[in-house]
Design goal:
Blueprint lengths: L15 E4 L2 E4 H26 L13 H10 L4 H18 L10 H4 L4 E3 L10 E5 L10 H17 L8 E6 L10 H14 L4 E7 L6 H11 L6 E4 L1 H8 L12
Parallel strand pairs: 4-5, 5-6, 6-7
Antiparallel strand pairs: 1-2, 3-4
Helix pairs in contact: 1-2, 1-3, 2-3, 5-6, 6-7
Amino acid sequence: MALRLSYPFGLSFFSPIRVHNRPIRACTFFARNQIETHKLVKEVRERLERDYSTLPVGRNGRDDEEMILWFLKDRKFCVEEAVSKLTKAIKWRKEFGVSDVSEESMEEIARTGKAYVHDFLDVEGRPVLIVVASKHFPAKHNPVENEKLCVFMIEKALSKLPDGKEEILGIFDLRGFSTDNADLNFLKFLIDVFYYYYPKRLEQVLFVDAPFVFQPLWQLVKPLLKSYASLARFCSAETVREEYFTEATVPADFRD
């Protein structure tokens, strides 16, 4: 798979910068940066081939250079840490059967409407994954099917990423949430999935119109998020309408 690189720090290709007090063109700096990044990707790929040759290849496999780059970025370009985390992620994808989860296999549980990927991007150009908490009943729904639906929706949202975008927006619609909808085990699964297997893919999470009964659950979940708790924003449905979508793209559930 071809490796796509983007320029960091928001600088333009020809922005002048200085190194050791000497002005150089940004294109020269980034060319060197790209060369170093290619070397690191190659190093991770060769390590995986040498030490983990039984891992799958192809899309989301040990030779997928885009996936390798994604995990290198997450691990601040530390090869050792990227290899360790990527190995765990590829093994998990195989054991979980991510490639076997499809629209057809998820049809029944998806019919509950508890989660869906919005047809339109938000104003920042991000795919939007919406969870309707009031339609989630852990006592009635199969937990394995819930986990598969979660992964399927993440994969679907990521497949809608436009060029230049790497992260999605998550919206938890908490209107009508009650203790019957509370599911700490599922939230722990969701946190692990985004931390270990889809790192740096969730840019922000909106908790919309959270009722008082949600607060005890949030107090249990927040410590598990650690630094990722900063991604969370509690807001109203009105905020979702006005700040994240246009009149034409706002989800039907959030229209006036």
